[in-house]
Each structure stands twice: as structure tokens, then as C-alpha cells.
Amino acid sequence: MKRFDTVVLALAVFHLTGPHSNSCGAVTTNISYPVTPKCLSCMCEAMSSCDTNGSCTGNVCGLFKITWGYWVEGGKHTVNNESSESAFAHTHCTVDTYCSLLTVQGYMQNFQQDCNDDEKIDCDDFLIIHYVGGYGCQGGKLPEDKWMKYLQCKARVGVDESLDKS
């Protein structure tokens, strides 16, 4: 199974089952997540080619390339009930696939908005929010190489979901 396929499978399981008592220490039920597994898959493809090797470059970590500030605004999730105040909590979470998924979902729950003025909130908006941040996504853009990876993935997996703008 290729790395991308493995990540897609993990994302689908995460989305369908939702978090339970898990490696992140989160115990939640009946939560509606804004970003679908297909969209998450294409987001990780655009950000890191779904690289699950658990590395950081400076303060940017994991398959979603999550910064410390993003992690904080995404809920400060942790792995194995580690204190969110631990000096390594950000790194441990963002290099863990499940914990990083919770962080992205938490961030999007807080910042979901129509960034490209097309009257819907969809995966395009989530990717822009993820890359430029939740405070300034209007007119935000990604580097061409990341955007092309995303569009290729989107065509391959059939990302077409959106939320009504309300």
C-alpha cells in the first residue's frame, strides 16, 4: 500500500469513527468535523506529499506542516495525555497522524470561512485557511507547486464537498 493510500485509509477511519479514547488522550463523541477525509488527504498531499516520517523543519511539523500557533488555535491536542504545556507537546502531536488530524479539524472548526468568495465553504477554502491562516484568507494563495499538487489530488480522489455559507 502506498503512503498516500495509507494516509487516506487512516483519514477515512478517523472521519467515520470519530475520536474515542485514543493515543491523543481525547475522549469525545458526536462531533461533526468540517473537513472530509478526501479533503484532508489532498491537503496533506499538497503540504508534504503525505510524508509520515514524523519530521519537523524548524517549528513546522508533520504531514500537515503545522506550526506552534496553528496547533494552539487548533485545540492544543496532545499524544498519550501529555500536558499541553510540555515543551514537546506541539512536536509530539503534529508528527502523530491522528493528533495532527484533530488539530486540523479543530483549527477549521474555529476558522472555516469562504476565502474565495464563491458563496460556499469547501476544500479549496480549507486549504487556503490551512496555508495562510484563519485571520487573512481572503485572496490568499498557495505557491504554484502546492496548488498544482492539490488540484491533481482533488481530480484523482473526487473532492467535491462543500458547506453552505451561512
Topology:
Layout: H1 3-17, H2 37-48, E1 56-57, E2 60-61, H3 68-73, H4 89-94, H5 97-111, E3 120-122, H6 123-132, H7 144-157, E4 162-164
Antiparallel strand pairs: 1-2, 3-4
Structural overview:
There is one protein chain. It is globular, with a radius of gyration of 15 Å. α2 packs across α6 and α2 runs antiparallel to α7 (144-157). It is mainly alpha-helical and 166 residues long. It is built from 7 helices and 4 strands, in the order ααββαααβααβ. Helices cover 47% and strands 6% of the residues. The chain has a two-stranded antiparallel sheet with strand order 1-2. A two-stranded antiparallel ribbon has the order 3-4. Residues 19-29 have low confidence and may be disordered.
Main β-sheet description: 2 strands, antiparallel
Helical residue percent band: 40-55%
Low-confidence stretches: 19-29
Order of helices and strands: HHEEHHHEHHE
State the shape. Answer: globular
List the total number of helices.
7
Using the CA coordinates, give the radius of gyration.
Answer: 15 Å
Gap from first CA to last CA: 40 Å
Percentage of residues in DSSP E strands: 5-15%
| Main structural class | mainly alpha
Please count the beta strands (DSSP E, at least 2 residues each): 4
Mean pLDDT: 85
Q: How is the largest sheet built, in terms of strand order?
A: 1-2
Summed up, what is this model?
This protein is mainly α and 166 residues long. The chain is 47% helix and 6% strand.
Tags for this model:
166 residues; mainly alpha; 47% helix; globular
